[in-house]
C-alpha cells in the first residue's frame, strides 16, 4: 500500500563490499527498493533470491534494489550468504552499527521501503514478499516509468535550462 503523503527518507549511511562509505543519497534519481535484512533472519533468507531476481529484471539507470544487511559480522558474512543462496545481482551493503534501524524506524526484519527518485518514502512493507512475481515487477516498473515520464516532460525540460 502506498503512502498518501510522501516524506523524505533519512540519508542512512552504510558501507559497500570493500568497506567504502555509502549513503542512500547515492541513489537519488532512481526508484529504490530498500530492504533491511540479516543473514540470521529466516524470512530474509527466503526473500533475498526474489530481490536478486527483481534487481536482474529492473535494475539499471532508473531502479535499484538496495539490500542493506545489519549483520555485525560484516561484509564477509553477507558475501558468504550471497554465495550460498545464489545471489548474483545485488551489491553488498552493510550497516554494522545498527544506526539505520533507528533512523528508518525498523521494528522487525525484513523491512522494505519503496523510495521515489527524489528520496521520498512511497510505502513500506513489514515482512517478506515475493519481489520477482510478475505482478510486483509490473507494479514497480510502472513507478519507474512514471518517474521517467516526469523527467522527460516538456515542463521539466524548460525548467532545467
Task: Provide a brief overview of the structure.
The protein has about 160 residues and is α+β, with helices and mostly antiparallel strands. It has 5 helices and 8 strands. It has helices at about 40-60, 75-85, 100-105, 135-150, 155-160; strands spanning about 5-10, 15, 20-25, 30-35, 65-70, 95, 110-115, 120-125.
Give a written overview of the molecule.
This protein is an alpha+beta fold and 161 residues long. The protein has one domain: Glutaredoxin. Helices cover 36% and strands 23% of the residues. The chain is built from five helices and eight strands. The chain has an eight-stranded mixed sheet. A hairpin with a 4-residue loop joins β7 and β8 (120-126). The longest helix has 19 residues, at 134-152. The radius of gyration is 16 Å and the shape is globular. The protein starts with 6 loop residues before the first strand and ends with a helix. 32% of the residues are buried. Residues 156-161 have low confidence and may be disordered.
Individual helix count: 5
Specify Rg, calculated over alpha carbons. 16 Å
Instruction: Categorize the overall geometry.
Output: globular
N- and C-termini, Cα separation? 36 Å
The side-by-side strand order for the widest beta sheet comes to 1-8-7-4-5-6-2-3
**SSE series:** EEEEHEHEHEEHH
Approximately how much beta-strand content do the residues carry?
15-25%
Q: How many E strands?
A: 8
CATH superfamily: Glutaredoxin
CATH topology: Glutaredoxin
What structural category characterises the helix and strand content? Answer: alpha+beta
The CATH class label is: Alpha Beta
Amino acid at each position: 500500500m502506498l503512502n498518501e503523503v510522501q516524506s523524505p527518507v533519512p540519508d542512512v549511511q552504510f558501507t559497500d563490499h570493500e568497506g567504502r562509505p555509502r549513503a542512500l543519497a547515492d541513489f537519488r534519481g532512481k526508484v529504490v527498493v530498500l530492504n533491511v535484512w540479516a543473514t540470521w533472519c529466516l524470512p530474509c533468507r527466503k526473500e533475498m533470491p526474489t530481490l536478486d531476481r527483481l534487481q536482474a529484471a529492473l535494475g539499471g539507470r532508473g531502479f535499484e534494489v538496495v539490500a542493506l544487511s545489519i549483520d555485525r559480522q560484516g561484509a564477509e558474512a553477507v558475501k558468504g550468504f550471497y554465495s550460498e543462496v545464489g545471489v548474483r545481482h545485488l551489491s553488498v551493503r552493510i550497516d554494522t552499527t545498527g544506526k539505520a534501524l533507528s533512523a528508518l524506524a525498523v521494528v522487525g526484519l525484513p523491512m522494505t521501503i519503496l523510495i521515489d527518485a527524489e528520496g521520498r518514502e512511497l510505502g513500506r512493507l513489514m515482512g517478506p514478499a515475493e519481489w520477482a512475481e510478475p505482478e510486483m515487477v509490473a507494479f514497480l516498473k510502472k513507478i519507474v516509468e512514471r518517474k521517467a515520464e516526469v523527467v522527460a516532460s516538456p515542463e521539466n525540460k524548460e525548467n532545467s535550462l
